[in-house]
Amino acid sequence: MRAPVLRKVIDKILFICQNTGVYNTHHYCSQVKLSEPRWKVEKQKTLNLSPEEKKAKYDKMSVVTVDMVDPWNNYVIRNSTVEKRKHTLDDVTEFNKFKIDNHQNRSLAEKVSLYKGDITRLELGAIVNAANSMLKAGGGVDGAIHRAAGPHLQEECDTLGGCPTGEAKITGGYNLPSQYVIHTVGPQDASPAMLKKCYENSLAFHKSHKITTIAFPCISTGIYGFPNRLAAHIALRTTRQFLEQNDRMERVIFCTFMPVDVEIYETLMQMYFPVHDWNYADDARTEV
Q1: Is the domain 64-285 a CATH 3.40.220.10 member?
Q2: CA triple 187-193-195, angle to 5 deg
Q3: Residue 223 neighbours by CB distance under 10 Å
Q4: What percentage of the chain reaches a pLDDT higher than 90?
Q5: How many other CB atoms are there within 10 angstroms of residue 157's CB atom?
Q6: Per-residue pLDDT for 29 more than 70?
Q7: What is the mean pLDDT of the chain?
Q8: Domain segments of the chain: what residues?
Q9: What pTM, to 2 d.p., does this model score?
Q10: Cβ neighbours of residue 101 closer than 8 Å, sequence gap 6 or more
Q11: What pLDDT, on a 0 to 100 scale, did the predictor assign at position 278?
């Protein structure tokens, strides 16, 4: 049935209902939404869940809440080997590209976390997807997020018209514990500027969607071939800069899977989010 004809049928039904008192117009309109795509209905339904309803929905899943993830200052205490990791002279050169506000070190060490686990199990405001420019389900973390979220995620992605490199677009989380999924497309040419934009544009949803907790995978370091260590510097530097200017962000979590990334983040987070008074950029603490 064509849209104009369908509209006339609905108008006629509403006219009859109004004049017979059978239905309240507002009530009927809330029930008849023939033009709404299924993904939009499910998205709104999920976003409107109460805390109790969320708990019931995810009760059988191994959901990880933000309070179950150690902030960085606690992580260092619980993992005694972390402080044995030494940065390199190249790390110091990269670190010195941005001057941190040392007065915020203590507070910001409580706002970042290193998490070794499945990003799809995190119950947060948003998780970030390392997407492709067509926003089609792919491999790696992209495929894992789509599988866990269910088919409505792809349906919504199909309405967004793709996503250019460095940009970010947001969708509902659907079957994921997190409210939203932020899709960002990392560079395939190892461009530091474009990777920086990925993090900046993803974090920008903090204000527009009131997101106070967010998790990042290692963007572009998989099949896109971005050097892991430089990617971590960019992720940590950009996040540090953002947190210094946005005190309402409660937690930024860096999800790592490969052992090499765990080691890199454990090393570099000591520089960007120091938990001690000494300066981690001191060459005396550098491994040559």
Answers
A1: yes
A2: 40
A3: 11
A4: 77
A5: 24
A6: no
A7: 88
A8: 1-34, 64-285
A9: 0.85
A10: 244
A11: 58
